[in-house]
Structures are given as structure tokens and as C-alpha cells.
């Protein structure tokens, strides 16, 4: 019985390590999934959210701040800019 618990704990820790690298936690869209061409704005990552005011983006975007409610509709061409707790751009993704 004790050996079974060790095995379960071992695999649970291994799974926890995999979750950190899950694609949905990536900070930029993956090359094949970049339907919104959001990767071209990689230079905005970790900049203050006011950096978005200096960039002309002539397409559909959504800025998501901590605590914002967002709709669950998926629009492949839309670029989402996630703003972190410190007011910096923490993630860019399509949808």
C-alpha cells in the first residue's frame, strides 16, 4: 500500500511539471496556430500596457486586465493582450 502511494505521488509531481509548459500558458501564439499574426507583437511583452497606445493595430484586438470578464467566443483573427497584475503585457494570443 505504501509503495502505491509513492508511485502515485511520483506521477502526480511529474504531471504538475508538465502543466507549466502547456501550450495554453505560452506567452505568444505558436507558429502554426498564429491565426491573428500576434507573434509580430512579441516586442510588447513585459512592457507597460501603455505601449499599446503607441502601436497602430488595424485589426480586432481585445485587452484583458486582471479581473475582467470576457466572452468565451473564439475569433481566430482577434489578438488578445493579457495584462498582468503589475500593468505589463504578460501574454499575447489569438482568439
UniProtKB/TrEMBL annotation:
Protein name according to UniProt: Peptidase inhibitor I78 family protein
InterPro entries with a match to the protein in the record: Prot_inh_I78 (IPR021719)
Name of a matching Pfam family: Inhibitor_I78
Gene3D superfamilies: Trypsin Inhibitor V, subunit A
Domain of life: Bacteria
Lineage, top ranks: Bacteria, Pseudomonadati, Pseudomonadota, Alphaproteobacteria, Rhodobacterales
Organism: Marivivens niveibacter
PANTHER family: PEPTIDASE INHIBITOR I78 FAMILY PROTEIN
